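Design job #97: recover the sequence.
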């Protein structure tokens, strides 16, 4: 059966070399071959996150587990936290913080917009141990200018935690330069690996805060007490064991990280931006509107598109019948009014044009206006 083109915001299409590595017979987790694979993969991640002073933790799990690991290791009962809310996934940050016993203040703007710095400043002024930011909220397609928010947070001595699940590897991100203390992601989006890995990169200030905890981390599996020495061992090319690593997924991630670094971070960010610009130009040429109205709030990794009048969620099925899988809406109050297209990983202009062509056909548009506009932007 011919597989449809996967253009949802994760999981994404995976390169054949990565799949080949994934399908190899499993290595022993303390074998010298795996130690080298994991060690090199962790080192490579420091380049991908632009965090030379970071310590990466990679475990079996999804993005949500990475969120939980990032928050639970530095937040203790009674701590105050400020959440920049730009969609469903930032609300999830707030939910996890509540489970950690934190007192939270959520700062939000209208759907599709980013709260003003001033509002976040007012919340931080009251004192906050952490500020959480969702770099790209996959439910709305909203992009947050992480650097500005991180700068602000450090003026108030707050730790900055960024959910980079729909961003890292596609959206420009410089963890050390922007002074982000913890960034987390999952394997299945712009890192272009199948789902199953939770990744967290912690920088010195976050590690220090973890070491100064007064109470133990309440969950066993995500406790850095176990994981930090394991990751350091692999980085030092020494065998270690706490919980069996998903060896095949780690090897697949290693291959993808190798490809990402070979492409170059600047080139990769710029390819994602250009593909996104082309796709969004196509969508606009079809007369369709996006959730974030302003360009500066629009992610490079996905596009969130309102259905035109008289069109409902059945459009997603019609597009799928044409061989392209896109995703429906997710943000509760507008769930049935929009759909989402992911464009990350190894996507090129071919996939963008194929997707636009399927959207045009599903909308019975015969002019080719979307494909034409996207192509013009790409060739510019
Ligand atoms: N954060 C963001 C921004 C996401 O897009 C997602 C997944 N779509 C998550 C967190 C949760 O990741 P997972 O589904 O892998 O648990």
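Job complete. Output follows.
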């Amino acid at each position: 059966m011919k597989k449809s083109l996967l253009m949802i915001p994760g999981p994404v299409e995976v390169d054949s070399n990565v799949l080949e590595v994934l399908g190899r017979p499993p290595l022993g987790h303390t074998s010298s071959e795996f130690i080298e694979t994991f060690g090199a993969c962790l080192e490579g991640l420091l380049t991908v996150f632009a965090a030379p002073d970071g310590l990466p933790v990679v475990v079996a799990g999804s993005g949500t587990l990475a969120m939980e690991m990032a928050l639970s290791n530095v937040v203790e009962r009674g701590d105050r936290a400020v959440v920049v809310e730009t969609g469903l996934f930032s609300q999830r940050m707030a939910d996890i913080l509540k489970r950690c016993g934190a007192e939270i203040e959520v700062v939000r703007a209208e759907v599709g917009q980013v709260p003003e710095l001033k509002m976040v400043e007012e919340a931080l002024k009251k004192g906050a141990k952490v500020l959480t930011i969702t770099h790209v909220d996959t439910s709305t397609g909203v992009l947050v200018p992480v650097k500005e928010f991180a700068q602000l947070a450090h003026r108030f001595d707050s730790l900055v935690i960024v959910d980079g699940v729909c961003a890292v590897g596609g959206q420009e991100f410089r963890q050390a330069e922007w002074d982000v203390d913890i960034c987390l992601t999952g394997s299945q989006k712009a890192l272009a690996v199948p789902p199953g890995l939770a990744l967290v990169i912690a920088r010195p200030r976050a590690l220090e805060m973890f070491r100064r905890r007064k109470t133990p981390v309440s969950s066993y599996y995500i406790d850095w007490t176990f994981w930090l020495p394991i990751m350091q061992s692999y980085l030092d090319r020494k065998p270690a064991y706490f919980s069996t690593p998903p060896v095949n997924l780690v090897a697949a991630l290693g291959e993808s990280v190798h490809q990402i670094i070979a492409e170059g971070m600047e080139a990769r960010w710029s390819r994602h931006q250009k593909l996104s610009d082309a796709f969004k130009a196509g969508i606009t040429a079809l007369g369709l509107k996006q959730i974030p109205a302003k360009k500066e709030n629009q992610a490079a990794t996905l596009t969130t598109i309102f259905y035109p009048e008289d069109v409902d969620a059945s459009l997603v099925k019609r597009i799928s019948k044409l061989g392209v899988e896109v995703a429906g809406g997710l943000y509760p109050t507008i769930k049935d009014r929009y759909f989402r297209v992911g464009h990350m990983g190894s996507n090129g202009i071919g996939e963008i044009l194929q997707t636009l062509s399927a959207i045009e056909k599903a909308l019975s548009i015969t002019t080719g206006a979307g494909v034409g506009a996207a192509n013009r932007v790409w060739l510019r």
